[in-house]
Amino acid sequence: MTESIAAAVSATGIRKAFADKTVLRGVDLDMTPGSITAILGPSGCGKTTLLRILAGFEDPDSGTVRIAGDTVAGAGVSVPVHRRRVGLMPQEGALFPHLSVGENVAFGLNRADRRRADAEVAHWLGVVGLDGLAGARPHEISGGQQQRVALARALAARPRVLLLDEPFAALDSGLRTRVREDIAAILRDAGTTAILVTHDQAEALSLADSVALLLGGAVAQQDTPARLYGLPATLTNARFLGSTVEIDATADAGRVRTALGTFAAKLPVPDGPAVAVLRPEQMHLGADGSGTAARVTAQRFYGADTVVHLELSDGTALRMRSAGLPGFGDGSSVTVQVVGDVLAYPSPAGGQRMSLGEAGG
């Protein structure tokens, strides 16, 4: 019952405008069969519009969508939603409150063969770990269980592609982490091609095989999570994908000179004024030893980590994250050690740098 019918999906040159507002500006995407692709971007960047075009609820103004090599949207082509064999798991799960869990999963199945439909329901409830709950009503189960029912219902229809529109946004943070990990494992076991829309960087990076960063209605970069986070193509991408510590720098022949030392650049950068970008995990505080001397000027505790405000001997001010409570009081003399190569980009107009935590969480 679990044979894969996963399909490749591609979108080429997708453009869409509503009245005088352009939402999508030539979006290109590629998704391989059986993979999970995250479309990551801030609110208003066009994520949901793109998902609706892939599903068939909207037609693009121009561009082409292909599923399993078949053109489903493009010049003179608009395959209806029900013929695309695309499943949709919306943000709230959208279960029918008057139907039981089993009846929700069976919705859309061919009920003429009752025994087969019942077997399908039992199978998919087992896959999502909800055996024995077929007779329950949606209000009798938890939010996480409701999301699993919505997933079982979507998978029972055996879609070629499953679209997930911010499916974990309504769950509290602890439950959200558990449910999304479980659902990702279920999708991989089922071999389903899945496209996840999210504004949550951690969600996209931890769940997806490929992440497409959508900014300003266009794909700024698509790559594996590790490469996207580790090698963002632009300073804007780096800022959105995670916390940054940014330092004025000078680039010269692939080396980057900063107040914290001179480092190799991870990506090619033109010689001249630059911004060096460090990730929090690259920076370590110590009471003495190797590194750059600094003074602690302030601290803010967040539980799992602490944001430490530092001043270097040349007056450079930095903010960095340190795991837990670092154990240094305000005014303490410390050393800052940087591990690994750094990202560097040409200095933006006006030389504006962003502080830790202003972008990407």
Automatic annotation (TrEMBL):
Superkingdom, natural source: Bacteria
EC numbers on record: 7.6.2.9
Top EC group: translocase
SMART domains listed in its UniProt record: AAA
Listed InterPro entries: AAA+_ATPase (IPR003593), ABC_SmlMolc_Importer (IPR050093), ABC_transporter-like_ATP-bd (IPR003439), ABC_transporter-like_CS (IPR017871), Mo/tungstate-bd_C_term_dom (IPR008995), P-loop_NTPase (IPR027417), Transp-assoc_OB_typ2 (IPR013611)
Alphabetical list of Gene3D superfamilies matching this protein: P-loop containing nucleotide triphosphate hydrolases
Domain ABC transporter: 9-241
One Pfam family linked to the record: ABC_tran
GO molecular function: ABC-type quaternary ammonium compound transporting activity; ATP binding; ATP hydrolysis activity
GO cellular component, one term: ATP-binding cassette (ABC) transporter complex
UniProt name for this protein: ABC-type quaternary amine transporter
Keywords of the record: ATP-binding, Nucleotide-binding, Transport
